[in-house]
Write a structure and sequence with these properties.
4-stranded antiparallel sheet; 32% helix; single chain; 237 residues; Rossmann fold; alpha/beta; Ribulose 1,5 Bisphosphate Carboxylase/Oxygenase
Length: 237
């Protein structure tokens, strides 16, 4: 039988079993139950009433968190020479084309996101086997294939994230760090959840938002009452 540490017991004791917390309460509580020595990530898990196997019930989108993710995002821009300076000025960590394509072909993926241009996608297509499984393949739907290279880099650096429902109907996303003020965690969580609600597929029947949980790295999950987020929104969940 696995032994539960004292800190883990303390964290579990602070989360009332069976209670659905208001989002603002959860944003404060997640800070209290985090005992890691490092600045833990704060995550949201939203279970939806959709069937991801059906194309008309797939939920995927992008949003910009008001206070960023608190994470240093390493951005690679694959572009033509005329766009390189624009990418560098916007804060891209790596900029180039053929040399980086060669590095990726060799297995290099020490990056968090790749931004590119439509006319470059033909060259990048062959990297699908390397980038696809790691979620690094650029996609027009997430704004990572664009002619507005500078803006795309700036948006990512400011806290733009993309999310997608998994095969179990759950969306997982990082919304900040434990070191954030509770109000900032609340704002980021609210922005993400409201974006998900707005993306409700027409084909989705019944309850759309089944459950919402907030947690930090290694902490217990805090169940959130969806009504605490959508009470002011004229949408059915």
């Amino acid at each position: 039988m696995t032994k539960i540490s004292k800190k883990r017991k303390d964290a579990l004791a602070k989360v009332e079993k069976g209670k659905k917390y208001d989002l603002q309460e959860a944003a404060s509580l997640v800070k209290e139950i985090s005992f890691t020595k490092f600045d833990a990530s704060v995550d949201i898990d939203v279970r939806l009433g959709v069937d991801p196997r059906k194309a008309n019930q797939m939920v995927r989108g992008i949003t910009t968190l008001p206070h960023g993710t608190g994470k240093m995002v390493r951005v690679l821009v694959l572009c033509t020479p005329d766009k390189e300076q624009e990418a560098k000025d916007a804060g891209a960590d790596f900029v180039g084309l053929d040399d980086y394509i060669e590095k990726i072909t060799g297995g290099w993926t020490d990056i968090d996101i790749i931004i590119t241009m439509p006319q470059v996608m033909a060259k990048i297509g062959k990297l699908g086997r390397v980038l696809g499984p790691r979620g690094l393949m650029p996609n027009p739907k997430t704004g990572t294939v664009t002619m507005e290279i500078g803006k795309a880099v700036e948006d990512v650096k400011k806290g733009k994230i993309d999310f997608k429902v998994d095969k179990y109907g759950i969306i997982h996303a990082g919304i900040g760090k434990v070191s954030f003020d509770a109000d900032k965690i609340f704002d980021n969580a609210s922005e993400l959840i409201q974006t998900i609600i707005k993306l409700k597929p027409v084909a989705a029947k019944g309850t759309y938002i089944r459950s919402i949980y907030m947690s930090s790295t290694m902490s217990p999950g805090i169940e959130i009452d969806p009504k605490s987020v959508i009470s002011k929104m004229k949408l059915s969940v």
